[in-house]
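Ticket #4471: structure export looks truncated?
Reporter: QA, pipeline team
Priority: medium

Steps to reproduce: submit the single chain below to the structure queue and open the exported record.
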Amino acid sequence: MYIQVIIIIFGFLALNVWGSADNPRARSSHKKYIIFMMLLLTLQSGLRNLAVGPDTYNYYNKFVDISNANWNELFNKISAFYTSGEGKDPAYYFLLKFIQIFIPDFQLYLIALATFFFFALGRLFYRYTNNNYEVLLGVTLYQCLFYSFYSITGLRQTFATAFLFLAVPYVLERKFLKFLLLVLIASTQHKTALLFVPFYFLLLFKSPKKIILFAFIMCAQMSYFVKSLTANLLAGTFFDQYSIYLEGYEMAGAHTFTLFILSLGLWILFASSKRNERFSLNTLFINSIAVSIAISPLLWIDPSNMRIVQYYSVFSIIILPVLTSVTFKNNTHLFYSLLIIILTIYTISRDLEYTFFWQEAELGENYR
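Actual output as written to the record:
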C-alpha cells in the first residue's frame, strides 16, 4: 500500500520538474515525465518479494523447473497442446527457456518483464495523453484497479497484454495484418489474448453515445443468463479450461470495479453531447469501455473473469483523463488533482501488502 502512495507522491513532485506539459511544444517534457513514471512502476513490479501477489512464488517454482527441463520436453508439450489440447499455454515456457539463456535469475526476469510491459504502456500514454496531469491520473487509476494483476501477478497474461498494447496503434492505422500478428504472438503466452481480435473492429462504430447505450442494454440482458451462456460458449472450445472460473463463485464479483465501469459509461454519455474534437479522436477507447460494460456481468460470477474484461477495461486509464479534460475545461488541473486524491484514498483503503525482494516476508495462504 505504501509503495503505491509513494509512487503517486513522486508523480506529483515530478510535475514541479517537468511541469504539466500542456503546451504541444512541450512533448519532450511529456516524454521524460512518462519515462520517469514508467520507471517507478517497473521498479515496483520488478523488485517485489516472492511473497507479493497470489502466484509470484508459483511462477518462481516454474522458472526453476523450466531451467532444469530440456528442449525436447518443451517441444513435446507444445506439440501436445496444439494437437490434442493438453497443457496450458506451453509456448510461454518455451519462450521462458530461451530467455533464461540471457537472464538466468528470476528477479532479473521480473525486472525484464516489467520493463517490457511498462515500455508498451508508456507508448500508449505518450500517444494518447496530452499532458502530465493526464499521465498521473492514468497511473493513479492503474495503481487503484490494475496494479494487483499486472504488477504483482499473472506473468503470462502481463506478457501477452504488453504485445496487445503494442498492437493498438495498428488499429488506428488500419493495418490489420500487423495487428493480428501481435495478437497471435500474445496468444502463445496466454490464449485469452485472442479475445482481443474484435478490438480491431471497434472503429466501425462511430457513435459513442449509441454504443454505450447498447452496452448498458447488453449488460442488463447478460446479467440474467451470463453463467449458462458463457459455460455453453466455452464448452469444448480452445478456452474450455477457463470454464473453471464460472464455478463456485455465484455473485462473488468485483462490485467496486463494476460500479466504476458503469459510472465511466454514464460519464461518457454526458460528455458525448459536448461534441469535443478530443472526445471524437478517442472513439476506439470509448468503444472498448462499452465492451467492458457489456461483459461486466462476468465479474458477478467470479472476479477472476477480470482477466477477460481487463483486455478492454484497461483503456479506462486513457479515457478517464480524456473525460476530465473534456468535462472540466476551466480549472482542469484542480479536477485532475481531486480525482487523483480520491483514487489514492481508495487505494489506501485496499491495504495491499508489499515487500521488496531483500526484505523478509512470509508466504501467504495461497502457497500453503
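Status: closed, not a bug. The export was complete when the record was re-opened. Leaving a note from the reviewer for reference: Residues 232-253 have pLDDT under 50 and may be disordered.
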